[in-house]
Fold this protein.
Amino acid sequence: MTKTVLIIDDELDLRQLLKLTLAKMGIGAIAVETVADAKVELKQHIFDLCLTDMRLPDGNGLDLVAYVQKHYPQLPIAVLTAYGNVELAVEALKLGAFDFLSKPIELSRLRSMITNALSLPSTAGADDPLKTPLLLGESQLMQHIRQQISKVARSQAPMFISGESGTGKELAARSIHQQSPRAKKLFVPINCGAIASNLMESEFFGHQKGSFTGAIEDKQGLFQAACGGTLFLDEVADLPLAMQVKLLRAIQEKRIRPVGSESEIDVDVRLISATHKNLQDAVMEGTFRSDLFYRLNVIDIHMPSLRQRPEDIELLTKQFLQALKHNGNTIRLSSEALDALGHYSFPGNVRELENILERAATLCENNYIEAADLKLNLDSGNQDQIKPPLFAQQSMPINSLDDHLEEVEKEILLDTLEQSRWNKTEAAKKLGISFRSIRYRLQKLGLND
């Protein structure tokens, strides 16, 4: 069936250009001049996409975006704005617009946007649901989060995901990508705090051979790698101010300049950012640019802590234990252990729950986890509280000094890895050993991936 687009613009030349471009793509079009005419056409025909100018004789594009969102919520609508009018474009995205284009219209960007819009499922998340949801939980909070994700996945607007460490911000970003028209392209995650500041521009935008010492060949940046897909900037609050300026320009212009290049490259990415820090506080403190914050925070989702949804602990525990089978044997959990988890406050959230179960599965006897194997501090659940000495945590009888020291080594490695969010490089630094050494020790103790 031929797709049909509704065009609303009072400039005859632009209407003809849009219709001609669509015709070459094998797409039908109906073009009108006013908001009133658009409402009539919307009642009489079924459209697959709506393209509207921001300034119209009897209203504006924002009014039309709001009208479409209310009466035709499954219809993607994109707005055409005057060059540099970023504020209106952002406002349109907040109201639910699929995307925006600045005039003069670049046909390559127009075609790309149309292709993305027409790739959307007719009903958000219903035509191609995820067989196994990435975000588990049946609490009202998690059901609401999944509903939000299904809705925002249809947009091209920048997304900001907030929440404590370990709440699943990257999983939320992946869920948005998987339910979007970009799902067949790459999802490229990057931890902004893990890149050296002097290499950051090259990592983001790429570089040309010879542009700096060590640049022995051309390198593609993250924006190019994610072109057509989604770029996820985790811990975006850690970006230095100089890089924030360059990132803002890349978002606004949808172009990047590789280090050492004299020309710019068009990029088409959906940007999703996240941090456990309060970005508004960072703006007030002057460590994060306010203009970049408002560009990243067009649509926001807040991931709840595990303390706010304790009813999900049992389901999450079952899923994690199912994935932790040892040699095909199922790991079981005693009712006392499950009760202990239910009374723990989880300062590290879902990631901490997974790590606790992984450690307990490694240390337990006969694939059966008892409450003592969890090693929880139920008095406070505070990660910062000093733990008892490792030797005092031993509940098993000591058969030999070697066995005892091996258990202590396991404890130290697991505790340090948990503190480092299972970043082996960071854990090795904390322990004062090399990366190769920590890999060897994990392999020796049967703790390797």
